Amino acid sequence: MGRIFSIGIAGTVLAGSILGCTANAQAVASQPAEGSQPTVASQPTVVSQPTADSQPKVPPTVTPSGIAAPATDADTADIAVDPASLLPDLPTLPPTKASLIGGTIQKVDRVRDQLTVQVFGGGKMKIFFDTRTHIYEGSVLGSAPDLRIGDRVYVDTMLDGSTVFARNIRLAAANAISGRSQGVVKSYRADKGELVLRDMLSPDPVKLRLTSRTQIVQDGHAAYANQLVPGTLVDVNFTSQKDGRDAQQVSILAVPGADFTFGGVVASLDLHIGLLVLTSSTDHKTYEIYLDPSVITVDDRLKLGADVTTVANYNGTRYVARSLTINSR
């Protein structure tokens, strides 16, 4: 009994020693090391929220006067760019003298910007144009789409290297353009009122329409349409319509078999083919007179500048001299 009691006391002492060591170890661990600073528990950081007054102020965008603000995508979405504005400007036209050409548009090539014009009096001409060309319809400024086949035009042309270029193109303000043709009658059909001429300057026959308003004259007096026999030499003033040419006046200059007297100065002479060109002292026009060596005797007095008088017969194609007199000065 006494042994048991002593063992209990010893166990109690041992447990107390263990607890005491543990307490001392905890006390040693909590003491700061020699020479070190005591640790201070960190305080939680408090982030302050910016107030309205503390927000940075961004200065407003100011656009200088007269300078547009930059366009946004929304502003430029509907803007279309003209492809022609991307091309370089054409050089200005040189200040050369222009020549006036009148005729009818036979073809329009809008790819090459080229007109083919049937020239009044005969022949065809290809004429180029571009944005430098001024196109007028009467007194109104027109454009290239106004150029149509069959239109009558007057073109101020100039040479651009080896090509003919149109400085100005003038379309008729009205539906008619006046013209003139001189030639020999090939045929006349009274039922259709159609007169066909062999124009002196045109390789193609010229068709004209005689109407109730057409005047026919000879030597200043009224004449008749039945006098327009083949071979008759005529001078015609006409107006060009969309559907043809209407003759305004037909002047009969010569009928086959008629004799004419010409007086004037020899302008040209070719005795090899028997051709004398005379400038009339009356109307100052030139006439071709053919010399038949079996009829006309030529001497040294017949030369350029000689003053002559001749009676010539018109045979339907040309004047043939029946007599020739060289006048003394």
What name does the CATH topology of one domain carry?
OB fold (Dihydrolipoamide Acetyltransferase, E2P)
Number of strands: 18
How far apart lie the N and C ends?
197 Å
Broad CATH class of one domain: Mainly Beta
Largest sheet: 7 strands, mixed
- The dominant shape is globular
Q: Tell me the name of the CATH homologous superfamily of one domain.
A: Copper binding periplasmic protein CusF
Number of helices: 2
The arrangement of helices and strands along the chain is HHEEEEEEEEEEEEEEEEEE
Q: Tell me which CATH architecture of one domain applies here.
A: Beta Barrel
* Order of strands in the sheet with most strands: 3-2-1-6-7-4-5
- Whole-number radius of gyration? 55 Å
Any key phrases for this structure?
OB fold (Dihydrolipoamide Acetyltransferase, E2P); five-stranded mixed barrel; single chain; 329 residues; seven-stranded mixed beta sheet; 18 strands; 2 helices
Structure write-up:
- Among the domains are: 73 residues, Beta Barrel (OB fold (Dihydrolipoamide Acetyltransferase, E2P)), CATH 2.40.50.320; 78 residues, OB fold (Dihydrolipoamide Acetyltransferase, E2P) (Beta Barrel); 69 residues, Copper binding periplasmic protein CusF (OB fold (Dihydrolipoamide Acetyltransferase, E2P), Beta Barrel).
- With 329 residues, it is mainly beta.
- Helix content is 10%, strand content 43%.
- It contains 2 helices and 18 strands.
